[in-house]
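EI: anyone free to look at a 150-residue chain?
SC: sure, send it
EI:
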Amino acid sequence: MRPEKLPALTHAEQIGLSLTDLKVGAPLPIHFRRTVTDFDNVAVSVLAMNTHPVHSDYVYAKASHFGKPLVVSPFLLSILVGLVTNELRQVVIRGVEVTGLTFMHPVHPGDTIAAEAEVEGVEQEQLTFFVKGKKASGEQFAQFRLIVNT
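SC: here you go
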């Protein structure tokens, strides 16, 4: 059986930004957000060996001052870094560094989170962003500086 000839491409979709698109002081447009599920939280807790019941025991968490389970912070960080780097798909990333990480408010299963990032530096082999994690309500729950080695 002979393969059929494919039609010629009519356009090429460009996904993500290139280095030339990044300007110091400008926001990095981030097009995605993510709702954290209970499954996400329990699975990551188990994988990370974080056995504190505030993450997976609803009765315990309800009696805590948080009133409901907390999402494990390393998972939140990985989502935020992923949201930023997902927008850099045209950039070869050799590594990332996180500095000045602060979590200031809790995130619970069911919360939808997003990242906001401002370009702080565009150098030959390094990009720097100031990143804020925000809930869909607008409440900021985290912030950090993300250094991307290119």
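EI: Residues 21-149 form a domain with the Thiol Ester Dehydrase; Chain A fold (CATH 3.10.129.10).
SC: 👍
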